């Protein structure tokens, strides 16, 4: 720990101090005038982390909150960008073993999940206007017309429920208002970028209003295939939202929201980092497909020899490329998504209490491919047909008694989900083996929860809460061999892979990889929470809390060789102890919030490979401790500073043999020890024609691994990112023009990756977008 602290201190000295010195130097320069559009004091931030509106400074939870203005100032185009500005958070815009351009991998305080499968749940919950978004595919939502993003750290098992053991990301969209208005935004930039946003607000009567928005993202790919020049990593999506509000009576209000997203894109650029020609699929290809072309590895004496690196018919290391954004793939690389949802929220004031009902339905259809081999030989490729729908109903009853000294909340929750994921894995031209792994899920979850806060004194409050959850998950495998060459089947029988779900002979078309019968798992869990907070002064609050959360168990979807039983895994749990301090000082010119935590993390669900199949196992126990601090300051009227720093000290304490090759010495994935960010906004000038400001953002992520087994090629060294922009706003605040650069230093860092060196025969990574310039024009009435 001491070495880590010393490293963090040196890091901040090297990176943050020059920035602050530069800002101070600017402060010493004479400014033409000070901006009058920005308040000289920090604005109060209202959050809903406890299912009620309250000040950020009165909420005893570690939270990072971003307003609509903060989202725009930081150039967040999707919610994944919030990860750069949140201590102890990793939010990647890709998932392991997925060719989807619309999936998310989220970790908070070292807790999350790298797999996207329907049979495993995320470790960080994402909520859109109170509705749980259950799948990582389709969770990479647009930030258009968002009012606020809240990041809640630590288990949120009482009020938010299952699958929030790392924390929760709470998205709140703009609500209809009583004043008419519209706004439009157009952005151009590198890679042919042409993004647009348009929204309007229309009061229909004095009791009804409608708000609608539409967003378009269009950008050429930042990577390419060397074989045919196909661009990779492009953006081609439409998203929209329409919200209607109605004051049905003096006591009843209704809000109906409909949202949708459609994208037709190519997969992110897969960078092959390593090729093992003796892996299962390369070996099958070289010997049974290209053996007659000089690629045979099997020798008469039983030995194996490597293939020639100058023979273009062979699958080997000759297909590695130099750049981070290129490969030699040739198969279709589409990534398509159709997503829509509808919700109805009813708020009923009973005078003695308030009732809220949230009824929601969401529907997802997606298809995407991932070519693992990195060559033009079609040695191996996978494709997913991924569909899911969910229905949820939540009732909340809350109020206050005892002269408002006691605030209470009780609720019921139901969640229903069905979906199917058909995953095809094969090699082509000519075909040697092809099979389908996947199946259907049918999940039900029921919960009841309650929380009360009692003011023991004017300064001291106690919060108690608990949630009981019962759920049942079902999985019906649809897994079979689609095609297998008789010679390949004979070879597999020789090494012990036979039709164990059939006649016991060699595998053949139609052989089942798993028996076609439904497997089920269930869980009954109670997740309590306790918080004690003390108001030291009007500006300072201290708190201590305990909370527990769990993430559902599930099933392993991908298997090979065939198994006679459907493999499943148990839930994982986190118990967190936290102390925090929230302060607002110097007449609301400085806000400083900090928290320290200790978490016991048990029955971790980790992704490891068994033969060629990515498999989820309960790894054992881990302990995670650390801290984070956020600040926001207005030392001068013309200067706004914000930032944060986080430390995550995570390590295994016990490992199950089933999780091999993970060991006690392994590092948890996506858990950098140090994270930090700093934002500087300088209001340079105000005059008769408008205001001019400059903003710089720096974000740091320490070294970490992208997988649980700590593959050396999937280790990302620490890196820092710089974004820079300048904005001019006219004096009437009707229009603005922003020009800037993201990833100014052109850092190439790993976003995701996976290694299956003995099965698929490759290790691959997906790297970040390079440096990009942009210009944005905004207009509003």
Q: What percentage of amino acids are in beta strands?
A: over 45%
Structural class: mainly beta
Contiguous low-pLDDT stretches (5 residues minimum) are 1-37
Provide the residue-averaged pLDDT: 92
Q: Figure out the total of helices.
A: 4
Tell me roughly what share of residues is in helical segments: under 10%
**Count of strand segments:** 45
Largest sheet: 22 strands, antiparallel, barrel
Gap between N and C termini, in Å? Answer: 54 Å
Spatial shape: globular
**Radius of gyration from CA coordinates:** 27 Å
Short overview:
The chain is mostly beta strands and 781 residues long.
What would you say this structure looks like, in words?
The chain has 781 residues and is mainly beta. Helix content is 7%, strand content 53%. The strands form 9 sheets. It has a 22-stranded antiparallel beta barrel. The protein has a 5-stranded mixed beta sheet with strand order 3-9-10-7-8. The protein has a 3-stranded antiparallel beta sheet with strand order 4-5-6, with no helix packed on it. Strand 37 (674-686) and strand 38 form a beta hairpin. 49% of the residues are buried.
Secondary-structure blueprint of this entry?
Blueprint: H1 2-28, E1 46-47, E2 54-55, E3 63-67, H2 68-73, E4 89-92, E5 105-108, E6 111-112, E7 124-128, E8 131-133, E9 146-153, E10 167-173, E11 181-189, E12 193-203, E13 208-219, E14 223-225, E15 231-232, E16 235-247, E17 252-266, E18 270-275, H3 280-289, E19 326-327, E20 334-349, E21 354-370, E22 381-401, E23 406-426, E24 433-455, E25 460-477, E26 480-484, H4 486-494, E27 519-537, E28 540-551, E29 554-555, E30 568-569, E31 572-585, E32 590-602, E33 605-610, E34 613-618, E35 620-636, E36 639-655, E37 674-686, E38 690-701, E39 704-705, E40 715-716, E41 719-730, E42 735-742, E43 750-756, E44 762-767, E45 772-780
Parallel strand pairs: 7-10, 14-19
Antiparallel strand pairs: 1-2, 3-9, 4-5, 5-6, 7-8, 9-10, 11-12, 11-45, 12-13, 13-16, 14-15, 16-17, 17-20, 18-44, 20-21, 21-22, 22-23, 23-24, 24-25, 24-26, 25-27, 27-28, 28-31, 29-30, 31-32, 32-35, 33-34, 35-36, 36-37, 37-38, 38-41, 39-40, 41-42, 42-45, 43-44
